[in-house]
């Protein structure tokens, strides 16, 4: 940020900069002209902190060093570093936020209590771009979605690498106009829309694009998941997956309207979430299991206008060739499909004889 006033935060190696950072941000936020908050190279401790606007002018936050969560002050908290209510905000610098997650993962029993804390990066707002971000957590770490979005509009996630123990990217209710492009995901649980329908206050999902991405060794691939016996009736529409490379990805293409983790729902009641205008185009690579494509739609609200175009998913396991399963959906087929599609008329792709 040219000609910006710079508020530098620093201290001895290993020192706690929480108070100094809050002071610097507050000064930058109140500055009448664009400003920059700078954490220089070095290792520092950081406690729970909320940097809250509105600010008088744009603020650029440059992290060149490494900040580590102070376990004593953040243990049991729902959040660590929060940026909120700020227009014209930029975060850059090539440094690292180290949440020291290992201590928290050991105490995480949310799969038993179902009271899971907020996710590593939770996003809500409008007109945001995430570019060239790296998010890392071990494959065995619980409830560590890389980026979770909900109630957002106009978000781009570009040129990013995510390795984690849950969904690389999860899309919650109320999401509109999301572009995910050139993201490498793995290990993790893939890229998911949902889960949707668990709560009664949820909103529709519209215009989700996942293109030119690579999934490596993930437990799921491209997934849409909704709860049976859903607490609301909403619609998820305009969801497009295109030009995706798979490398030993289990369940590469999955619509799961019977999503019911830990048996918390009544599967006899079909999902009331409507899925409309869904496309999977040019998906290619290898599967980690034989369930290459599973379209398990709701018998109460069968999926509408699902298109499968040019799918080539190989599987060489001993339990047989890859499979393509459909329930409560008749997909439109374009081009070629491997494995052979379940049902639906074949439509030739443009330019094919």
UniProtKB/TrEMBL annotation:
Major subcellular site: secreted
A GO biological process held by the record: carbohydrate metabolic process
Location of the active site: 189
Recorded GO MF terms: polygalacturonase activity
Lineage top rank: taxon: Eukaryota
Membrane-spanning ranges: none
PROSITE patterns from the UniProt entry: POLYGALACTURONASE
Keyword terms of this UniProt record: Cell wall, Cell wall biogenesis/degradation, Glycosidase, Hydrolase, Secreted
Compartments, as annotated in UniProt: Secreted, Cell wall
Secreted among keywords: yes
UniProt similarity note: Belongs to the glycosyl hydrolase 28 family.
Protein name (record): Polygalacturonase
Originating species: Brassica oleracea var. oleracea
Record lineage: Eukaryota, Viridiplantae, Streptophyta, Embryophyta, Tracheophyta
């Amino acid at each position: 940020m040219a000609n910006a006033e710079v508020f530098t935060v620093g201290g001895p190696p290993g020192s706690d900069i929480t108070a100094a950072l809050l002071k610097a941000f507050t000064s930058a936020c109140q500055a009448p002209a664009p400003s920059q908050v700078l954490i220089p190279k070095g290792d520092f401790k950081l406690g729970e902190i909320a940097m809250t606007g509105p600010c008088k002018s744009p603020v650029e936050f440059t992290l060149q060093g490494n900040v580590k969560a102070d376990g004593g002050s953040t243990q049991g908290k729902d959040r660590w570093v929060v940026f909120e209510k700020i227009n014209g905000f930029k975060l850059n610098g090539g440094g690292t936020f180290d949440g020291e997650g290992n201590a928290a993962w050991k105490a995480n029993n949310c799969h038993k209590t179902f009271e899971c804390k907020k996710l590593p990066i939770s996003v809500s707002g409008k007109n945001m771009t995430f570019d060239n971000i790296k998010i890392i957590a071990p494959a065995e770490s619980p409830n560590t979605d890389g980026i979770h979005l909900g109630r957002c509009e106009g978000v781009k996630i570009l040129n990013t690498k995510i390795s984690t123990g849950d969904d690389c990217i999860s899309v919650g209710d109320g999401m509109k106009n999301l572009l995910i492009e050139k993201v490498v995901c793995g290990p993790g649980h893939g890229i998911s829309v949902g889960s949707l329908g668990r709560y009664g206050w949820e909103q529709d999902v519209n215009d989700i694009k996942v293109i030119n991405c690579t999934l490596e060794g993930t437990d799921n691939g491209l997934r849409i998941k909704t709860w049976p016996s859903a607490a609301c009736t909403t619609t998820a529409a305009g969801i497009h997956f295109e030009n995706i490379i798979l490398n030993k990805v289990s369940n590469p293409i999955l619509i799961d309207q019977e999503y019911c983790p830990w048996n918390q729902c009544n599967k006899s009641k079909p999902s009331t979430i409507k899925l409309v205008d869904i496309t999977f185009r040019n998906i290619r690579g290898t599967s980690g299991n034989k369930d290459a494509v599973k379209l398990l739609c709701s018998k109460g609200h069968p999926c509408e206008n699902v298109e499968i175009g040019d799918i080539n998913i190989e599987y060489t396991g001993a339990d047989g060739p890859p499979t393509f399963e459909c329930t409560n959906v008749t997909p439109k087929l374009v081009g070629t499909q491997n494995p052979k599609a379940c049902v639906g008329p074949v439509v030739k792709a443009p330019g094919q004889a």
